[in-house]
Design a protein that fits this description.
Blueprint lengths: L16 H4 L6 H4 L2 H22 L12 H23 L1 H6 L1 H15 L4 E4 L2 E8 L2 E3 L2 H21 L8 H19 L4 H18 L3 H20 L5 H11 L10 H13 L10 H4 L11 H8 L1 H25 L3 H26 L16 H19 L6
Antiparallel strand pairs: 1-2, 2-3
Helix pairs in contact: 3-4, 3-14, 3-15, 4-17, 6-7, 6-8, 7-8, 7-9, 7-16, 7-17, 8-9, 9-10, 9-16, 12-14, 14-15, 15-16, 16-17
């Protein structure tokens, strides 16, 4: 702050932030509007789908059909405010705060392993805050892994000391990511760990590190997955989910119930769907956790192929623009951060939609911007803020 004027990080000290916001070379004109509008549209579509999935479920909506709708809109509003704050601070400023953010995220996931942690749907990955609010710290770990690895991998390259990260730097970055991943695995929250592994691979590919690291990690990941299976680290419900994925006809009234009902819901929608709030599977409450893990089934049943395709198209636009930001930025740090977000959004969207279609195992991952859940909503909007910051802080000529 200078006098009574605010300055937005990275936009020059000579002009107040709110004046610059409406200037000819304004912040508003440099924002990536396709990303912003796609994210907002997805969140608003999600609010309608969440309302449809929960309005008749008196056992969870506390007798108020608007309970989840209001909270979803509140989460979207808070997430949008976090995006604005992220742009205002700037990704370069956050780069200096990475040690604090990383330490805070590790501390929070460690709290989950204490008596403060709570189990939801078999995953001991939540902290109950009271008043019906809860926090899933693993969602924020995704952001800090991206920022932390980017800080380490890009430090000497952006300074001009190295053309690409050396082996020692890569090892440090992998060590930084491994610590929270192991803690999350102990919860166990296998779905979040899968996303983090994909993030690490995306970050390494974008950093210019030797491809031997990528191939080595893929091999290590395969060996690690076999070890996790053999050592019985996974809970019984997680093993059952993989078994149901491998054999869809296995126990259709038990472990395979969710995926079978999800496919029935989507298959019944046809081209244009049965109409909003008219889906028999949704109205009949046949699909469990429909407002979170299986929210895409509401779109498939009530809005049909057209509605489901619209959600996928909006996610595609967001990913395409994020890839452009990663390619066009002039600093490796920005490239890595944007690439990590692309890997995160792409894999999590594919996994969520894929598990409703039966082509991916059920892991409990939310659909970005669409599924109900505050922690996920806050994290993805912070990621959008990082993408916008990378775009607006690049040189005007870029």
């Amino acid at each position: 702050m200078t006098g009574n004027s605010f300055h937005i990080s990275g936009y020059g000290p000579d002009r107040p932030g709110w004046t610059r916001l409406f200037a000819r070379d304004s912040l508003a004109r440099r924002l990536d509007w396709p990303i912003l509008l796609s994210a907002l549209t997805l969140s608003l579509i999600g609010s309608v789908l969440v309302f449809s999935a929960t309005r008749n479920r008196t056992e969870i909506n506390q007798g108020d059909q608007y309970y989840f709708l209001i909270r979803h809109l509140m989460n979207t509003g808070i997430g949008f405010a976090l995006m604005v704050a992220t742009v205002w601070l700037g990704h370069r400023t956050l780069r200096t705060a990475v040690p604090i953010l990383y330490g805070a995220s590790v501390f929070l996931i460690l709290l989950v392993l204490t008596p403060l942690g709570s189990t939801v749907n078999g995953a001991h990955s939540w902290i109950v805050l009271g008043g019906g609010f809860s926090l899933q710290p693993s969602e924020f770990v995704k952001v800090t892994i991206i920022l932390g690895m980017a800080m380490l991998l890009a430090a000497r390259v952006d300074a001009g000391d190295k053309p690409y990260p050396d082996h020692r730097t890569v090892l440090q970055a992998l060590g930084l990511a491994t610590v929270p991943m192991l803690i999350v695995l102990l919860m166990p929250d296998l779905g979040s760990v899968m996303v983090m592994v994909v993030i690490v691979l995306g970050v390494l590919l974008a950093s210019g590190a030797s491809n031997r690291w990528v191939f080595g990690l893929l091999s290590a990941g395969t060996i690690g997955a076999l070890a996790v299976w053999q050592l019985h680290i996974l809970d019984d419900y997680q093993i059952a989910r993989f078994a149901a994925f491998a054999n869809p006809s296995l126990d259709p009234a038990g472990v395979g119930y969710n995926t079978n009902q999800a496919r029935i819901a989507i298959g019944s929608g046809g081209l244009t769907g049965s109409g909003l709030f008219n889906g028999s599977q949704t109205t009949g409450q046949f699909v469990p956790e429909q407002q979170t893990d299986f929210v895409f089934t509401v779109a498939g049943e009530e809005l049909g192929f057209v509605g489901g395709g619209l959600i996928i198209a909006l996610l595609g636009i967001l990913l395409w623009r994020a890839c452009r930001i990663a390619r066009e930025t002039t600093e490796l740090y920005g490239t890595i951060v944007a690439a990590g977000i692309v890997a995160w959004f792409a894999f999590q969207s594919f996994e969520n939609i894929g598990m409703t279609l039966g082509i991916m195992p059920v892991t409990g991952l939310p659909l970005p911007f669409v599924s109900y859940g505050g922690s996920s909503m806050f994290a993805v909007w912070v990621a959008v803020g990082l993408l916008q910051s990378i775009r607006v802080q690049r040189p005007i000529s870029a």
